[in-house]
Write a structure and sequence with these properties.
This protein has 14 helices and 54 strands. The strands form eight sheets. Strands 1, 2, 4, 5, 7, 8, 10, 12, 15, 18, 21, 24 and 27 form a 13-stranded parallel sheet that branches. A ten-stranded mixed sheet has the order 3-6-9-11-13-16-19-22-25-26, with helices on one face.
């Protein structure tokens, strides 16, 4: 049983990427800058230019700002800059789009050129949208000469030739990271993403979407890491298409077919294209779920594979393809505030095959004005016009009445204004920074065949249990070469069944080789479909139609669509299960808010009142425009569970202030594999609620507080987070988001074995309620925000042992939500006979002992737990 396992394969790849080079002493463009363009200096040490209007030209315009060298360009306005002629960005310029107030900056009508007058540029957080009125045969962004370019969090769309082309002589050291390159327009049958064939180019964590071809067409030395490519038509990544030599690292990318896709993910390869390829996935089935498999060697075409990465810079944090997908959804483009266009593109991507198209012109998106509305806003006072607001200078020990933008108050190599710009963007330093020195790199471990791991008696051994646990936290079953010897085709459990069950919990259903056993469809009692193809077109009407006070489960299937309605499920609709077609595309939403209705409780988009309720694969949303509203009361609740024994699996719950209201002292609620997003007190209430394997996401740049429990003193537990990921908008400041504050002095909130981002601070007070007097605690937090200090009280091992799902939710009726899930699914998802039960076992997570359930097998005669 001592075999190499897929987790080792993943670790090897991480080591290969992060250890390709040792430390770097040269100054980075900004902390977090990576790739070949990482050392671009932009306008460092130059003059500050304020963009004060949205004019195409003239004093205070963006065109004027970038027309001279050695400048840092900041924005005192937000909105749409409509341009007739192309804009050339001159050399040694930083474009700091993160300074734009309101909805940021969009440049629309023609493109951006970087040519003989350009070079050494840093361009961040702007949108460049060319379109039908741009110059024929030109690119939305085109680089034709010079070196050292850094593009970060830039949205580029609607090129008339290429959307982002790098093609010329003497070009070198270019990075495109965290960007969107999309919708090359096709009115001349030439919808392309990018021609990237000059010098050393890094493309990292970027979304390529709705481009017919060239995603990109790459030649020469390149690294292409953790990108997502969606809905190409003819060609995905074109591998050179030439006899000239190319040397590329292509790693951790996810290719996802959309409605337009007919071609392969890799095309036009030649033997002179040398590639180190690792962990690239392709999702071909357009079924609304992320369930791709590794790209096979044959699918790359006649390239020449190498066994070790080329000694390029790599990335400081390598992601699996699944992680890369989620990162792209949350972070790419000018994402401090996403505009209407980027929202459409991300919505297409998250449909996972059902939405998207190759457009003839931008008119095809149906967005008013093509670019929608980009609101402005006031710029903060800057008395000395040095690009740094007065308040920020005062807080950082500088003089707001004497320009000191080019000073270096902390002597770290970044000028004072760069410190301000980096803080706005939420930049985090990479793991290492000094002179690059290639090191020897281990080769990837080949995929292991798992013959003989499953005992013939049908039991599951410890090795398979480990594999099960590995998949349960995110590895794809395609990482395992399963053979017939691994599969028992009788009624007993085997690793295939275990993986199939695990897949259900993350919304993936596929068949496995070696045994003719596939999931059978769920039998639904009613279907809701916005397009009229079901029994009802609204969720509320379907709920109203079912009988009251049921004692057996009733299932309503909700097809993908946006259901804009206030949904109030009465307490009498017991034993109800709502199943969405896809968590990202089945959206229950409304946009009430406090100032409109007069109370927080009246803002709820969806009320769930019955006992014994399950929701699967749904988005619960409050779509109130929090960021752009001037309302005084912005509380806007997406979901209010107001019943006992409620279960939420693979759901998305999104809002800003007061997103999820866990209400009712006597009620117990269980959230598993969910995504919960907000800004202020966005998980709050007095119910007992457990969150396992969930992502808790802080949505805005400015910090706030995640939870506000008002747990009764009679309740032993309140809000409990077990093995969750605490993540944030990339611009969120370090140590700016508090774990919670007591809405009532007896409030209870605990985090056990959670991975916390650098945005996490500690606990804080709420009015007269002091956090130290509440019941707050942590146990073995990890990650950049998992620091232990006097403001982060820790549970002892003995205390933590009491925080299990079973103990927290047991109650007087011995309720176990995992048993409910297992019992409910056993007859619905497998065509083979046999029972599936559960047991609980300790899983060691970085030294953190916690008890979680996983599925194991039982013979037909066994009793279920």
């Amino acid at each position: 049983m001592s075999k190499s396992k897929p987790v080792f394969k993943v670790l090897c790849i991480i080591v290969m990427v992060t250890l390709c080079f040792s430390l770097y002493s040269q100054q980075l463009a900004f902390p977090g800058a990576e790739g070949f363009g990482r050392f671009a200096a932009g306008g460092r040490g130059g003059n500050v230019y304020h963009v004060t209007n949205l004019n195409d030209s003239g004093s205070g315009s963006f065109r004027d700002g970038v027309s001279q060298s050695n400048r840092i360009v900041v924005f005192d306005v937000g909105g749409i800059i409509r341009i007739d002629e192309r804009i050339v960005i001159h050399n040694n310029v930083t474009v700091a789009g993160q300074t734009a107030p309101g909805g940021g900056i969009t440049i629309y009508g023609n493109g951006i050129a970087l040519n003989d007058d350009s070079g050494n540029s840093i361009i961040r957080y702007i949108r460049i949208r060319m379109g039908k009125n741009g110059d024929d045969g030109k690119d939305a962004v085109g680089i034709s000469a010079n070196t050292d370019y850094m593009f970060d969090h830039v949205s580029v769309t609607w090129g008339r030739d290429g959307t982002f082309d790098i093609n010329g002589t003497g070009i070198d050291n270019v990075t495109i990271q965290n960007c969107i390159i999309g919708q090359g327009i096709n009115n001349t049958n030439h919808s392309t993403g990018g021609l990237m064939q000059s010098g050393k180019i890094s493309v990292l964590r970027t979304l390529w979407i709705d481009n017919k071809t060239r995603n990109p067409k790459g030649r020469g030395p390149q690294e292409y890491i953790n990108n997502v490519i969606y809905n190409w038509a003819e060609n995905g990544y074109i591998l050179g298409d030439t006899e000239g030599v190319s040397e590329a690292n292509i790693m951790g990318n996810y290719f996802i077919n959309g409605p337009s896709t007919v071609g392969n993910c890799f095309n036009s390869a030649t033997p002179s294209f040398y590639v180190y390829a690792s962990q690239n996935y392709w999702d071909k089935n357009r079924n609304g779920s992320l369930d791709g498999s590794p790209v096979t060697n044959a699918e790359y075409g006649p390239v020449t594979f190498v066994s070790s990465p080329f000694p390029y810079f790599g990335v400081s944090k390598f992601m699996t393809p699944g992680e890369a997908y989620h990162n792209v959804v949350n972070d790419v483009g000018a994402s401090l505030v996403r505009d209407d266009v980027d929202k459409v593109l991300i919505n297409q991507l998250t449909s996972l095959g059902t939405l998207g198209s190759i457009i003839n012109t931008e008119d095809d998106n149906g967005i008013p004005g093509n670019v929608g509305t980009v609101p402005g806003g006031p710029a903060p006072p800057d008395s000395d016009q040095d690009g740094m607001p007065d308040e920020w200078e005062q807080n950082n020990g500088m003089n707001p009445h004497g320009a000191d933008n080019n000073g270096d108050i902390d002597s770290d190599g970044y000028t004072n204004i760069e410190e301000y710009l980096n803080e706005l963007a939420g930049d985090q330093p990479p793991q290492s920074q000094s002179t690059p020195q290639p090191t020897s790199v281990p080769t990837a471990t080949p995929k292991t065949t798992l013959t003989g791991d499953v005992n013939s008696s049908g039991t599951i051994d410890i090795v398979d249990a480990l594999l099960m646990a590995q998949y349960y936290v995110g590895l794809n079953p395609a990482d395992f070469d399963l053979t017939a010897a691994d599969v028992n085709c009788d009624s007993s459990i085997d690793i295939v069944d275990a993986l199939l069950v695990a897949q259900y919990y993350v919304g993936l259903i596929t068949a496995f080789p070696g045994c003719n056993r596939t999931p059978v469809p769920l039998a639904y009692d009613l279907v809701v479909a916005k397009d009229g193809s079901g029994n009802y077109t609204s969720v509320q009407s379907a709920v109203n139609a079912i009988a009251d006070n049921r004692t057996s489960w009733f299932i309503i299937f909700i097809k993908s669509g946006i259901y804009h309605e206030v949904i109030d499920i009465p307490a009498t609709k017991t034993y109800l299960r709502l199943v969405g077609e896809n968590a990202s595309t089945t959206i229950l939403t409304y946009n009430n808010y406090n100032s409109l209705v007069g109370s927080t409780s009246g803002t709820v988009s969806t009320f769930i009142r019955p006992n014994n309720f399950i929701a699967d694969n749904l988005t619960f949303e409050n779509s109130f425009d929090y960021l752009n509203s001037s309302a005084s009361g912005k509380q806007a609740v997406a979901l209010e569970p107001l019943g006992d024994r409620q279960i939420y699996i693979n759901c998305r719950i999104t809002g800003y202030q007061d997103t999820l209201y866990n209400r009712g002292t006597q009620y117990r609620q269980y959230f598993k594999n969910c995504y919960i997003a907000g800004r202020t007190n966005f998980i709050f209430g007095d119910a007992t609620a457990v969150f396992t394997h969930c992502e808790i996401y802080h949505r805005t740049v400015t910090g706030s507080t995640m939870t506000a429990p008002n747990t009764s003193s009679s309740s032993q537990y309140g809000l409990v987070f077990i093995d969750c990921q605490l993540t944030a908008n990339s611009g969120t400041g370090t140590s700016s988001v508090n774990l919670g504050r007591p809405w009532d002095q007896t409030g209870s909130c605990h985090y056990l074995c959670c991975t916390m981002g650098a945005h996490i601070a500690a606990w804080c007070n709420m009015s007269e309620n002091i956090w130290q007097n509440a019941r707050f605690g942590e146990y073995k937090s990890t990650g950049a925000g998992g620091e232990i200090n006097l403001y982060r009280p820790q549970l002892t091992d003995t205390e933590a042992a009491l925080f299990t799902v079973t103990d927290i939710l047991r109650g007087s009726d011995n309720w176990n939500p995992e048993s409910v899930i297992a019992n409910f699914n056993e007859a619905l998802y497998f065509s083979a006979a046999g029972k599936r039960g559960i047991e609980t076992h300790s899983r060691n997570n970085s030294g953190c002992q916690i008890t979680i359930p996983y599925i194991i097998g039982r013979k037909l005669s066994d009793n279920l737990v």
